[in-house]
Design a protein that fits this description.
single chain; 329 residues; mainly alpha; 19 helices; 73% helix; extended
Length: 329
């Protein structure tokens, strides 16, 4: 594990728990504990204390795999308790069907997590376990309130699914409407994903019409492309802005490698503007591009062809060019 240039021992501590018998695991734990105790507190390396943290983390993984909760707690008292340690201890208690003790450790982990400045991956797991435990010990209202608080703070498809897990069956419709109203305060990317999944198209279209050009340009192409295609039949005005935003994101960044894709998008935008009868909006886009990007010759030549309606001179794909050369031979 110490000399492993090819990474064969990566995550070995997690894997050995699954394959070693009780005696083998105890022997392995002893070896790792010895490595931890012999590691210097401050390494003479770039990262002080790295070796000690590494062996300490491996030892915790093994103790959790053994289900030795007392040894795990004793080791954490020797070093420190982190949120992920509380999660591991709670998981052990939960597996032993001791939900009250598991909940106490979850709450301790959440308190540690709140004392830090940044959210960690354990936050979500701790909250999810807290809700499951609350429901199990007969406190479903508290579990629902926890899920609602998380959804309000971060509305998304994931937090919506978690919320609905704790909503009573006969209240699903009411809570759905409440969640959709609360999601209006979320970020645009999460709103698009959630509203598409829940078929809230009127809400989605209304939000996109209010969005600024900067907001639309900040969306990833994997979001805007499919969305523009989905909306172009019934809402061409929205699709026009989305296609235009995809183009502007490329040329604003000067990514000449993607100019062909940008031209494809601006051509689609032109057609959608025409379909929606928004000729003035299209002329405004043209004027803006000409004013800000006239020096980008690699883009402007194709752009002007689109504006005038002239057929674009698109180079055939490599395979077609190769076939043409073969026929000549």
């Amino acid at each position: 594990m110490e000399v492993d240039p090819y990474g064969f021992c990566h995550d070995l501590d997690r894997q050995v728990v699954k394959v070693l018998d009780k005696k083998g695991l105890e022997a392995f734990v002893g070896q790792i504990r010895a490595k931890f105790e012999s590691a210097p507190s401050l390494d003479e390396q770039r990262y002080p204390g790295y070796t000690r943290r590494r062996w300490g983390g491996a030892l915790k993984t093994l103790l959790a795999g053994q289900g030795d909760v007392e040894a795990y707690k004793a080791f954490c008292e020797q070093t420190e308790f982190a949120a992920k340690d509380c999660l591991a201890i709670a998981d052990i208690y939960q597996s032993r069907r001791r939900p009250e003790e598991a909940l106490a450790w979850v709450e301790r982990g959440l308190a540690i997590a709140r004392s830090g400045n940044q959210r960690s991956s354990e936050d979500h797991e701790l909250h999810a376990m807290e809700r499951a435990l609350l429901a199990k010990i007969g406190r479903p209202e508290d579990a629902l309130q926890s899920a609602w608080s998380e959804f309000e703070a971060h509305p998304s498809t994931f937090t919506y699914k978690e919320l609905m897990r704790y909503v009573p069956v006969n209240e699903k419709k009411t809570w759905h409407q409440k969640a959709m109203e609360a999601s209006e305060k979320g970020d645009l990317t999460s709103q698009i994903e959630l509203w598409l999944k829940k078929k809230e198209m009127d809400r989605l279209v209304s939000r996109l019409r209010r969005a600024t050009a900067k907001e639309l340009e900040a969306l990833g192409h994997s979001t805007t492309g499919p969305l523009a295609g989905k909306l172009k039949r019934d809402h061409p005005d929205v699709s026009a802005r989305l296609y235009s935003a995809q183009c502007m994101r490329v040329i604003n960044a000067g990514k000449s490698k993607y100019y062909d894709a940008a031209l494809d998008n601006i051509e689609r935008a032109r057609k959608c503007y025409a379909k929606a009868g928004l000729n003035d909006d299209w002329r405004a886009v043209v004027a803006d591009v000409r004013q800000r990007h006239f020096r980008k010759k690699g883009f402007m030549a194709g752009f002007e062809e689109i504006v005038t309606g002239a057929p674009r001179n698109v180079e055939p794909p490599f395979l077609e060019r190769a076939k043409a050369r073969w026929l000549k031979k």
